[in-house]
Design brief:
Blueprint: E1 13-19, E2 22-26, E3 32-36, H1 40-51, E4 54-59, H2 66-80, E5 82-85, H3 89-108, H4 126-146, E6 152-156, H5 163-170, E7 175-179, H6 187-190, H7 196-204, E8 208-211, H8 214-228, E9 232-233, E10 236-239, E11 242-248, H9 255-263, H10 265-277, E12 282-289, H11 296-309, E13 317-324, H12 331-351, E14 359-362, H13 368-377, E15 380-383, H14 393-399, E16 407-411, E17 424-426, H15 431-443, H16 446-462, H17 465-488
Parallel strand pairs: 1-4, 1-6, 4-5, 6-7, 7-8, 8-11, 12-13, 12-15, 13-14, 15-16, 16-17
Antiparallel strand pairs: 2-3, 9-10, 10-11
The structure holds adenosine-5'-diphosphate-glucose.
Family: In the N-terminal section; belongs to the glycosyltransferase 20 family.
Protein name: alpha,alpha-trehalose-phosphate synthase (UDP-forming)
Length: 489
């Protein structure tokens, strides 16, 4: 018994996330083109799909005219088992850029941004909240169109925290799982949120609520006690006539995708090219979305301190920082982008020469094979997040260092720091300490590197994304079975 699939005929999994895993475009002939994306969640669920049919529900990503919606819905369903949620661009902006990414995201990462932004917009303005609520209602309606009794529903992330309660109101016996990919903050930070009760009550209608780490679960439980006055045990929370189970499910990556890529001649060729390019130098690597939670300025300043304090690394160490532009419509991200460019310019100006740029800054996405080649040649990978739900870059680097035994410098504020005990743990706010860690990582002995790498590798290859998805879904299914037995008794 693998814990999935099972006895109830017709039982499916409805996966609900903000975006569908497919990019939708209308071509010149007026036909729809779909491009499936190979995101983390897609590969995590691949294993589940073999044993458990599923339907994916998510926002289409851009406005679709009313007259096109029916045909798009039909084709997406037929070709990809995807069910689109349609939002106007206006609503989507307030919901996604506004409430999701400018209210919940900063707060959940312990960054309470100023109440008024520089364009005079108020942070918790009710229009953002109304758009969030409206979007969650749209999701509920789309799910109702496809729901069949016996289906399990798995809601993903902070975009959809009201959805469990909206579904529970419509279908009393429904089984709902909710997983939060971000941290859940301490109650002293969470209580800032003006609509803190409604958001909590939204999630508490789920049967199973999952977090990456023990700390996030603990914060959630204490918020339920302190803010809603509910009784909570480590197992979960009693809410109305229903028990919301709380569980810890640390996500991982798909190791085979990396193993396969590392074996490709084209990737190996690319790695040799990079090695030749950086011959005689140590390579430190950063791979981040350009988000203020990733601590990119902290990393740059620590590298600057390293070059100042340890001049022996001048001309002998390079920091390759990949920074994918992200959420560029949100003001805070624009600020970060210009700040980061300025820092890179300053450091390169100060320590560079005609032949040497200490920082190679790549402000765009790189393709998967180039990324793997880079991971494989880097002597050190630096993750300096000031908060991060998990951080999969740290896992990906480990996977690509089987032979080289590179050192992972990892912020203690990333969820992955709880499990990756072979990393050099740092507080990214302590720039001197981070600079020292970079120096230690660059100077580590082969034996030390090998021991650390073995530990890391073992963890990353066993705690995979597929394992995460299967654990969550099988626990959800068990809860559904227990409930059904209780009802039938
Ligand atoms: P993210 O904040 O996006 O995810 P992370 O977990 O590090 O952070 O995943 C990033 C992914 O994007 C990685 O697979 C990485 O390879 C890829 N990526 C990053 N930069 C890239 C680039 N320049 N080019 C190509 N690919 C790039 C959120 C939470 C995390 C949590 C995950 C999963 O913020 O904390 O780990 O969800 O739950």
């Amino acid at each position: 018994e693998n814990g999935l699939g099972g006895s109830t005929p017709g039982r499916r999994l409805l996966v609900v996330s903000n975006r569908l895993p497919v990019t939708i475009n209308k071509n010149n002939d007026g036909q729809w083109d779909f491009k499936m994306s190979a995101g983390g969640l897609v590969s995590a669920l691949a294993g589940v799909k073999n044993e458990f049919p599923f339907v994916w529900v998510g926002w289409s990503g851009s406005e679709v005219p009313d007259e096109d919606q029916d045909s798009l819905r039909t084709e997406l369903r037929a070709q990809h088992e995807c069910v689109p949620v349609f939002l106007s661009d206006f609503d989507a902006h307030l919901y996604y850029n506004g409430f999701c990414n400018d209210v919940l995201w900063p707060l959940f990462h312990y960054v309470p941004l100023p109440i008024v932004s520089s364009d005079g917009e108020r942070k918790f303005d009710v229009k953002y909240w109304e758009a969030y609520s409206k979007a969650n209602h749209r999701f509920a309606e789309a799910i109702m169109q496809v729901y069949e009794p016996g289906d399990l529903i798995w809601v993903q992330d902070y975009h959809l925290m009201l959805l469990p309660s909206l579904l529970r109101k419509r279908i009393r016996d429904v089984t709902i799982g909710f997983f939060l990919h971000t941290p859940f903050p301490s109650s002293e930070v969470y209580r800032i949120l003006p609509m803190r009760n409604k958001v909590l009550q939204g999630v508490l209608a789920a049967d199973l609520i999952g977090f990456h780490t023990y700390d996030y679960a603990r914060h959630f439980l204490s918020v339920c006690t302190r803010i809603l006055g509910l009784e909570a045990s480590p197992k979960g929370v009693d809410y109305k006539d229903h028990f919301a189970h709380v569980g810890i499910f640390p996500i991982g990556i798909d190791p085979t995708a990396f193993i396969r890529a590392l074996d490709l001649p084209s990737v190996q060729e690319r790695a040799s090219e990079l090695q030749a390019k950086f011959a005689g130098k140590k390579v430190l690597l950063g791979v981040d979305r350009l988000d203020y939670i990733k601590g990119v300025p902290h990393k740059l300043m620590a590298f600057e301190t390293l070059l100042a304090r340890h001049p022996e690394w001048n001309e002998r160490a390079v920091l390759v920082q990949i920074a994918v532009p992200s959420r560029t419509e949100v003001e805070e991200y624009k600020k970060l982008s210009s700040q980061t460019h300025e820092l890179v310019g300053r450091i390169n100006g100060k320590f560079g020469s005609v032949d040497y740029s200490p920082i190679v800054f790549i402000n765009q996405s790189v393709n998967f094979h180039d990324l793997v080649a880079l991971y494989s040649v880097a002597d050190v990978c630096v993750v300096s997040s000031i908060r991060d739900g998990m951080n999969l870059v740290s896992y990906e680097y480990v996977m690509c260092q089987r032979e080289r035994h590179g050192v992972l410098v990892l912020s203690e504020f990333a969820g992955s720091a709880q499990s990756l005990s072979g990393a050099l743990r740092v507080n990214p706010w302590n720039i001197e300490e981070l600079a020292t860690a970079l120096h230690d990582a660059l100077s580590a002995s082969p034996r030390e590197r090998q021991l650390k790498q073995q530990k890391l590798y073992r963890y990353v290859t066993t705690h995979t994304a597929a394992f995460w998805a299967q654990s969550f879904v099988s626990e959800l299914r068990e809860l559904a079975n227990l409930e059904r037995e209780a009802r039938d008794a």
